[in-house]
Amino acid sequence: MAIDPQPEALAAGGPDAAFPPAPEGVSGERGPWYLAYKRFIRNRLAVAFLILFFLIIVFVLAAPLWANNVAHTGPNQSHTLEKLHVNGEVHEVVTPEGRPIGPQWFGAGGKFFLGADSRLGRDEMVRLMYGGRTSLFIGVVSGLITTIAAVILGLLAGYYKGWVDAIIARTLDILWSLPVLLFGIALGVSLAVGGLKIGPLTIEGGSIWIPIFVISIFTVPYIARPIRGEVLALGEKEFVEAAIAQGAGSLRVMFGEILPNLASTIIVFFALNIANNMLFEAALSFLGAGVQPPNSSWGTMISIGEELLTTQPLLAIIPGVMILMTVLSLNIVGDGLRDALDPRSKVRLEARAGMVEREGASV
Amino acid sequence: MSEAPLLEVTDLVKHFPIKSGILIDREVDQVRAVDGISFSIPRGQTLGLVGESGSGKSTACRAVLQLIKPTSGSVRFEGQEIAGLSRRQMRPLRRQMQMIFQDPYASLNPRKRVGQIVGDPLKRQKVASGSDLRKRVQELLERVGLASEHYNRFPHEFSGGQRQRIGIARALALQPKLVIADEPVSALDVSIQAQIINLLDDLQDEFGLTYLFVAHDIGVVRHISDRIAVMHNGKIVEHGTADQVCEHPADDYTKQLLAAVPIPDPRESRERRQGAGAAG
């Protein structure tokens, strides 16, 4: 213990460090979450990218502020026939040849900060902010739906085993073996045209709930499978038997005993799943099967900007960079969370605690 | 023994199927983990169940508590047949029979605080709640040799011996009549083993507990047991009072187990080895 190179073991309070008992207020904080938080904070890269992610969120949340106070336009408002006064010169927002105005930065008082888009002369900056809202909203909401569904399925399959597991696991296998993008496009296009009706729930054609729905379904196996595996392993632990021996019902065991032990896995997968879903959304939208016009998302903006890739490359590059930064930050934060919450590091800690006792610590 | 025993186990059998097959599993063989064992424990006494790893001791414990369904046989608790009862039917009976587990690291949920771990059985069986619950848990912690301040700690902050004490407090929370201890000291080092066994001994006197005490070390079991049953390959090969089994073992396997108990004095140890050789 004295020559322990890893400070978290000390923070954990190995048995000898923890006794004589510390004051009560202190002891309560030394839970697994506190240790994970300490480890995460030490990971500078992950913290930096977490800040970047928060900045991106602030950026998209500020969309109405920018639109109303700086750009004085809406995300879907066309400016095709308007003229713009910059430093005494007059520019057409979209030239008769169909070429939109480039980035003006603050030349026109913040109007057309990133220029106009190719078809309708809409303010690219405003669309970028509102599009980011859509992209992030789809990513986060489908991530939530996927994670909740996957956790429930994984718990049921891993806890009951037998035929319940067989049905759930095989269904997930089938879902996993489908060519996801192809299937997603087909489903996305057909639903975007016809809308969807499930019982009392009606989703109209152009709604962003269609891509959310499509993405959620296809990403469930990526989380449900590892959760199921973990539940299978946890179900063999003696603390589960102890709970049953006290008279706990199945639901109590699943949600009271096993679920808290899945929390770290769930958090990591949730973060990575949002990133994955945003890429999925971008791909669907780029191919016209995701967010429908006139609404913008980063995927649709790349799709529209791609038409003018040779003359106004920024129109496609900027939303691309936004996706890149968001997905990259989520991935790095997710990896950082995994390192901080890694169950194996917990095992290491426990093994060490056991060793200390064998050396003859107090009981 | 005019009074009916607290626990009476008759011809208890647990077989695990070995399955094989590509598409459809079919049973090709069985593991006879517990192969027809019978024993009974009078109220307030301790039965020591000894045997090597894989002899079916743990399976027997779980089959008695209905944590796994026995293949056949009868388990009577206070005269009531409990073998084959559903999980729901067992629930009210669980208050009366509790288990102490072998691995103090796997038997405590790492995401729960000690107060929750010990208090959950009380909450589940609706025995106590609120401040009463907290008070009772803290009393229990103190009774097993921990401090009441440990209420808010997590299991990883404790050593193996302390964790086993938490496990004992959890088992005692519901004031059971029968406690099944499945190798409660095997994972601990020797000095701590003695402390835990003495604690269990004291608690038995204090609460009038009946123990089924399982261990692979007959030396550990002898100290605490009134009677000892020796288990080998799923069967009980010898059964008698603790002194009888240890002093005059009838079965070869029991003799081997006794010979494996370490003796602090080398001379005595040598003598016994020669004696065992002459007898076998």
Topology:
The complex is a heterodimer of chains A (363) and B (280).
Chain A: H1 7-12, H2 15-18, H3 24-27, H4 32-42, H5 44-61, H6 63-71, E1 83-86, E2 89-92, H7 124-160, H8 162-177, H9 180-194, E3 196-198, E4 201-203, H10 209-235, H11 238-245, H12 250-286, H13 298-305, H14 314-341, H15 343-358
Antiparallel strand pairs in A: 1-2, 3-4
Chain B: E1 7-20, E2 26-41, E3 46-50, H1 57-64, E4 72-77, E5 80-81, H2 87-94, E6 97-100, H3 114-124, H4 130-143, H5 160-172, E7 178-182, H6 190-207, E8 210-215, H7 218-224, E9 227-232, E10 235-241, H8 242-247, H9 252-259, H10 266-279
Parallel strand pairs in B: 3-8, 3-9, 6-7, 7-8
Antiparallel strand pairs in B: 1-2, 1-4, 4-5, 9-10
Helix pairs in contact in B: 3-4, 3-5, 4-5, 5-6
The best one-word shape of chain A is: elongated
Strand order of the largest sheet of chain A: 1-2
Number of strands of chain A: 4
CATH architecture of the largest domain in chain A: Orthogonal Bundle
Q: What is the terminal-to-terminal distance of chain A?
A: 17 Å
* Number of structurally distinct domains of chain A: 2
Distance between the termini of chain B: 35 Å
The helix count of chain A comes to 15
- CATH H-tier superfamily of the largest domain in chain A: MetI-like
| Biggest sheet record of chain B | 6 strands, mixed
**Tally of individual helices of chain B:** 10
Annotated CATH topology of the largest domain in chain A: MetI-like fold
Largest sheet of chain A: 2 strands, antiparallel
- Detail the poorly predicted runs of chain B: none
Report the structural category of chain B.
alpha/beta
Radius of gyration of chain B: 20 Å
Average pLDDT reading of chain A: 83
